[in-house]
Amino acid sequence: MDTNSVNGATVLEAYKISKQVSSPEGHLTILSELSFVIEKGETVAVVGPSGAGKSTLLAILAGLDLPSSGHVILNGKNLGELDEDGRALVRAESVGFVFQSFHLVPSLNALENVMLPLELAGASDARAASHAIIEQVGLQDRWRHYPAQLSGGEKQRVALARAFATEPAVLFADEPTGNLDSRTGENIMNLMFELNHNSATTLILVTHDQVLAGRCNRIIQLDAGLLVDDSRARR
Amino acid sequence: MNAVTFALRSFGREARSGEVVVLLAAVALAVGVLTAVGFLTDRIGKAVARQANEVLAADLRLRSQQPVPEAWRELAANFRLQTAETQVFPSVVYAGEQSALATINAVSDNYPLRGAVRVADTLFGEQRTVSGTPPRGEVWADGALLARVNADVGDLLQVGEVELRVSAVLTYRPDQSVGFASLAPSMLVNIADVPETKLLGEGSRVRYALLVAGDEQDVNAFYADIEEQLPEEIRASDREESSEQAYSAADRAQRFLSLTAVVSLLLSAVAVSMSARRFMQRRLDTVALMKSLGATQQFVILAAVTQLMLLGILGVLLGSVVGYAAEEAVAWLLADIIAADLPDPGAMPVLLASGSALVLLAGFALPSLLQLKHTPPLRVLRHDMMPPAPSRLLVGGLALLAVAALVYRAVGDARMLLILLSGIVVIAAALYLLGRLLVAMLGRFRSGVGVAWRYGLANVARRGRASAVQVVAFGLGLTMLLLLTIVRGDLLQGWRETIGDDAPNHFMINVQPHEIDSVTAIFAAGGVAKPEFVPLVRARMATINGEDVRTRKYPDPGGEWMANREANLSFAAELSPSNEIVAGEWWPEDYSGAPLVSVEEEAARETGLALGDKLVFKVAGQDIELTIASIRRVNWDSFQPNFFMVLSPGALDQMPTTYIAGLRLGDEQQAVLVALVRAHPSISVIDIDAILQQVRNIIDKASLAVQAVFAFTLAAGIAVLFASVQSTIDERRFESAMLRALGARKQTVFAGVMAEFAALGLAAGLLASAGASILAAIIAVQLFELPYTFNPLLWVAGIVAGVLVVCASGYLAARGAINSPPVEVLRAA
Question: B13 — contact with chain A (CB < 8 Å)?
Fold first, then answer.
C-alpha cells in the first residue's frame, strides 16, 4: 500500500464554496458550490480546461482569496472567520507554495529565498535548515546564485526547496511544470513527489499536465466552475 | 524573527535592486541640491547684505546730538564687535583768501567698518582704494570743495584753529548719502585733530555716531541689549533705512534666492515622490509573495518603514557627501564674490537639507508604502491584482504638509507661502485634469497616424491616470524651471534697466535759472550734451483739505513727517519716463488752468491723500492751492531726479526756483567739472558714480548667484524628469520586448516610445507654460515689485523644452529597455 494514501485525518475541508465576480457583462460565476474533503498525506490534482476555475479554487483553498459563500477549513482553522493577518498566520504555519512562474525574490540569492518563509515563521536555524534542503534539491553548488543566474528548472528547484523548507501541512502548486520543458518538468515532478514522500505533506496541485495529474492519488476535475469528477486512483 | 530584524537583515540584499538605488539617488540628490542651494543662499545672502551695509560703513550706526556714551562702546566690545566713531559738523574752511562751507567728517581709526574709502591724487583723477584714515594733520577733501576754495593736493586748509594739509582728493566714502541733504562738500579728517580746531563748543551742530560691525548674531544681540535703554535723541539705523537702491537690489536677490531654494525643494519633492512610486510598485510582488508565505500586515508595514528609514539615513549620508562636495565647488567657483571673512556656515546647510529630505521622504513616500500593506496576496496567482489606491486626502495632505513646512522654513513669509502653495495646488490640480483631458484627446488621434504613433498614443491613453500623473510631474518640474527662468530674466532685466549705462553718475544741484545758459555753454565746450534741468521749488505744506497739517491725523507716521518737512516741489508738462500714473490722469502738455499736483503713490498712502484733495503749500510767503489730479508710481531705483509732488506747468511761476540735473560723464570728461565749479561756485556737484558702482556690485553678485543657483535647480529638474520616466521602465521593457517578439522592428518600437514621450512632453509643456505665466505674473508683481510683461516666447520655450527634455530623458531611460533582447525580458517576466 502506498504510504501517501489516506490515513484518516482531515487536513482541508471545502464546504459549498462559490465564487462570483462582477464584470461589465454582469455577475460571473467562477466556482459553484464545491464541496470536498482532503485527508492528510493525499496528493490531489485539480484539472480542467482553461477558465474552469482551477486557480481560483487554489487561491481560496490557500486563503489567498475568500469565497463568495461557503467555507474552507484548513488544518482545523475556518479561513472565513479569520482576518487577512489571521489567514497569513495559517499560511505561515501550515502552507507552502510552488508557482508556475517561480516567484523568487530577485534581490535574494537561492539560499536567501529558501530562508524567507523560515524567517517569517520565526525559525531560529533558518540558514542551516535551508542549506540542508538546498542540498536535497541538488543546488548545493549554486546557493549563492541569484534567480537571474539560474535556469528555469533551477529556479523551480529553489521554489520547491522554499516550499518544503517549513514542512508545511499542505503544499499548493500552481502549474509547477507549466513554464518548463518536458524533460526538466519531469525532473521537477520527480523531485516534488520525492520531497512530498519524505515529509508526508499533503500536495494539492493545479495542472494541465495529464502525466503529472496521473501521478497523484486523487484527481478533482472542474468544468465551468462545477466539480465534474472526484476520483481516487487505485494503484 | 521580528520585522525590524528582518528588514535590517534583508536591507543589504534589497539594496542591490534598482528601485532602491533610484529612491536612494533621489533622496541623496535632494540633500545634495538643498545643501548646495542652502549654502549658496547663505553665503551670497550674507555677501550681498554686507555689501548693502556699506552705505552705513557699518552693520549698525547709533547717531546722536551728544557724544555716544563710552559705556556703549565697552558693551559693543563685550559682544565681540568692532567699533568706530564719527563726528560730522559743518564749518567754513579757508585756503588763503578763499572760503567755502564744508561738511567735516571726523573719523576714528577703524573707520569704515564696512566698505572702503577711495581717494585720488589729483582733482577728478584716477581713484584708488585706501585703508585707514587720514593721519593727524592731514585731510582728504572732496574735489568740489577744493575747486571752490581754489586749492589742490598739497595745499593747506584752515579748519577752525588748525591748518591741515590736503594729502588726497576724497572721491568716495561708503556712508556718503546720495540724497540732497548734505549740500556742502565734505572732507575726511582724523578725529584726534578735532579738539584742536576748537570748533566743537556749546551749540555747535555736531552729529556723533558710533559705528558697530561684527557677526550678525552678535550685532543683533548687542542691539537687543541697548534697544530698551536707547534715549530719544539717539537714532539707531541699520541698512534697511539707508540706501533704497542698494537695499532693494539686495532684498530682491534674497527673495529670489529663497524662491530658488523653494523650487529646488519642490523639484526634489517630485523626484522623491516619483521614485517612491516605483519603489512601491516594484515591491508589490515581493510583498504579495511574503504575505502568501505568511507575513502579517504589521510585519509588512514595519519592515517597509524600517527600510524606508534606513534608506533615508543612507540617502542623507550620501547626499551630505555630495552636498559638501558641491559646497566646496561652489565656494571655489565664487571665491571672489564670497567674502572669506564670512562666518563658516558649518554643518547647518547639510543638517537643514537632511532634515528637509527626510520630511519629504515621509511626506511623499510614506503613503505609497502604507499602501503596500493592503497588497492582496492573491497577486502571486493573478498579477493584475493591485492594492486599493490610498486615500487621496491622505496622500495629498501628507505631501502638502511636508511641502508647506519646508517652504515656510525657506521663505519665512506667510504671504509668499500662501501664494506659492495655492499656486502649486491649483497648478497640480489643473495639470492633472487637463492632463487627463489631453490624454483622452490624444487617444482619438491615433487612428489617423502611423503604427509607431498609434502605439505611442494608445499607450498614453491606456495608462490614463498614470499618464496624467506623469504629465503632472513633468509639468510641475517644467513650471518651476520656467517660472525661475522668467523671474530670473525679469530680475536681471529690471536691474539692468535700473542702472543702465546711461544712468546719470553725477548730480548738479542749486543751479540758478540765469546760470543755465552758462552751464550749458561750459558743457558744450567740454563735449558734454546739455543735461535736462529739472526745476525745484522749496515749500512747506500748510493744509490738507483745509486742515492744518500739524494737527491732522495720519494713517502712517511717515505721513506726518512727509507733511511737516520742507518739501521739494517740481513742475513738468510731461510725465517723467521713470514715473507711471496709477490713479487719475496726467495733465495735457499745454495745460494752463488751475494748479494741479501729482502725488507719489507711497506718500499719498502714508499721508492719507486721495484724488481731488486740496493741498495748500506755502512758497516764499505765498499760499498756493493745489488739487490732486493724479497719483504716480515712481521707480526710485532709476537714479533720475524724482519728486513726491509734481505740479502742473505755470503753478510755480514767479516762485524762487533752482534747477537740478543728472549728468552722465565719462572718465575723460571729469575736467569739465573743475571748470563748472570754478565758474559757478554755488552749484554743487554730487558724484554718485561710487554709489552706482556699489549698487552695480551688489547686482552683479546677486545676478551671478541667481545664475549659479539656477543651474543647480535645472540639474535637479532634469533629474526629476528622468526619475519619472524611470518609474514606468518595467512596463516599457516588457512591452517593447513583446512588440519585438511580435515582429516589430526595433526602430518602430523606439519611434512608438518617442511618440508617447513627445505627446506627454507636449501636454506637460503646454500646461507648464500656462502655469508658469500665471505664477510669474503674481510673483513678479507681489514679491519683486517688478512690472510683468507677457512673453509669448515663453510658451514656445515651454513646449519645445517639454518635448525635448521629456524625449531626451525618456530616450536615456528607455534605451536599455528597448535594446534588451526580447527573449530575456519575456523569460524573466
Answer: yes
